[in-house]
Design a protein that fits this description.
Elements lengths: L1 E7 L3 E8 L15 E4 L1 H4 L5 H13 L2 H4 L3 E3 L5 E4 L5 E3 L6 H10 L3 E6 L16 H11 L3 E5 L3 H8 L4 H22 L4 E5 L6 H4 L7 E3 L8 H9 L13 E3 L12 H13 L4 E3 L8 H7 L2 H7 L8 E6 L2 E7 L4 E8 L5 E6 L9 E6 L2 E6 L11 E4 L1
Parallel strand pairs: 1-19, 3-4, 3-12, 4-7, 7-8, 8-9, 9-10, 10-11
Antiparallel strand pairs: 1-16, 2-15, 2-17, 5-6, 13-14, 14-15, 17-18
Helix pairs in contact: 2-4, 5-7, 6-7, 9-10, 10-11, 10-12
This protein binds beta-D-galactopyranose (GAL).
């Protein structure tokens, strides 16, 4: 049994939702994949207090906050010296973290920050090694709601303490992430805990045990289609490790950065939604085109990512550049992502069996359109051949 879908255009993605079984689960923070914005992908090491405030204003005025993007995350390069008591301070780019956090909160947004279990961060600013409790408390005092904790120079500590012993190195790494987890717990403030160690040692298997709400599964994303798709497609098989409160993170969005086309950006956003990935935008909101805004705030796509069932999707079919991914949704529905990663238009049959669907017909929602699609085999023609173009 199959539904015929004609994918027109070069790179394209079509998202559908149809019926299937459901369950529920609950945890305290990050019940659905965190949504927000992070400074690294666009501002890199140049980010300032003003950039963060401007971004907060724009998240509100562009409708992104209301679409769900509530975290405003300062990545690396905010850190200053430690004071006489060993407390971390912010550098001259961020004159007053507490005031900044109050500003962010006054906009109905939340503030995120970045550190490392090593002595220095990847951009060589002070990390938290030996100051975990103190730093967690400082973040809580500032009103921080989210911490991205990046392995960086701690890799050197691991190699130094356990030379040529990968298993012992992994233990050290896990203990370092657990240390900050305990430090965050002691503050009593709910802080989303985001692990960044590029997927080493199958982090998806132990991330939840160190309190992680999300963990990076790969190296860094870049604002080009090849890198984005390589990372996205490599998520196949990881679905079972994600769920409410703990998510696989294939890295932040590059929608609106670099030279990706509309189709490529739409495919990026669609795949991340099927993956129940954290949706952390990384573009410059000051220069956001209407097209970028439309892709980032597409309610139907966001609803698939944020679905309350909290299940990550997986690949169910692939042939050459064509891939089909499905994601179980609440209410017994299934999201179907149809991706053409190739450069020419092509036609694809959706086999009910591959999609875990039964019967001769299924109600389908595609974008705003609601249609019924019947099985194309057994002599029954499809009631409609849906056409999506990009
Ligand atoms: C990398 C990380 C990036 C960014 C950068 C900052 O390790 O993967 O997302 O945080 O460090 O130095």
């Amino acid at each position: 049994m199959r539904i015929l879908v004609r994918i027109v255009g070069a790179v394209c993605a079509a998202l559908l939702s149809v019926c299937g079984p459901s369950t529920a689960a609950a945890q305290k923070v990050a019940l659905t994949p965190p949504m927000g914005w992070n400074s690294w992908n666009f501002f890199n090491g140049k980010v300032t207090d003003k950039d963060i405030r401007d971004t907060a204003d724009l998240l509100v005025s562009t409708g992104m906050r209301d679409a769900g993007y509530v975290f405003v995350n300062i990545d690396d390069t905010w850190e200053g010296e430690r004071d006489a008591q060993g407390r971390i301070t912010s550098n001259s780019k961020f004159p007053d973290m507490k005031a900044l956090s109050e500003y962010i909160h006054s906009k109905g947004l939340k503030l995120g920050i970045y550190s490392s279990p090593g002595a220095t961060t990847c951009a060589r600013y002070p990390g938290s090694l030996g100051h975990e409790d103190q730093d967690a408390q400082t973040y809580a005092d500032w009103g921080i709601d989210y911490l991205k904790y990046d392995l960086c120079s701690y890799g050197g500590v691991m190699r130094q303490q356990a030379p040529n012993d990968p298993a012992a190195q992994a233990k050290l790494m896990i203990a370092a992430y657990e240390k900050m987890h305990q430090a965050l717990l002691k503050t009593g403030r709910p802080i989303v805990y985001s692990l960044c160690q590029y997927g080493f040692n199958e982090v998806w298997k132990w991330g939840p045990s160190v309190g992680a709400n999300l963990w990076r599964t790969t190296g860094d994303i870049q604002a080009n289609f090849d890198r984005m798709m390589l990372i996205g497609r490599a998520q196949a098989g990881l679905a079972k490790y994600a769920g409410p409160g703990h998510w696989n993170d294939p890295d932040m969005l590059e929608v609106g950065n670099g030279k990706m086309t509309h189709n490529q950006n739409a495919a990026h956003m669609s795949l991340w939604a099927i993956l129940a990935a954290p949706l952390i935008a990384g573009n410059n909101l000051n220069q956001m085109t209407p097209d970028t805004t439309a892709i980032l705030t597409n309610k139907d796509v966001i609803a698939i990512d944020q679905d309350s069932l909290g299940r990550q999707g997986d690949r169910v079919y692939s042939e050459g550049p064509m891939e089909i991914w499905t994601k179980p949704l609440s209410g017994g529905r299934t999201a179907i992502g149809i991706f053409n990663f190739g450069e020419t238009a092509t036609e694809i049959g959706l086999h009910f069996k591959d999609l875990g669907l039964k019967g001769k017909s299924q109600p389908v929602t595609s974008g705003r359109q609601r249609i019924w699609v019947r099985s194309a085999t057994d002599g029954i023609p499809p009631s409609r051949t849906a056409q999506w173009c990009c």
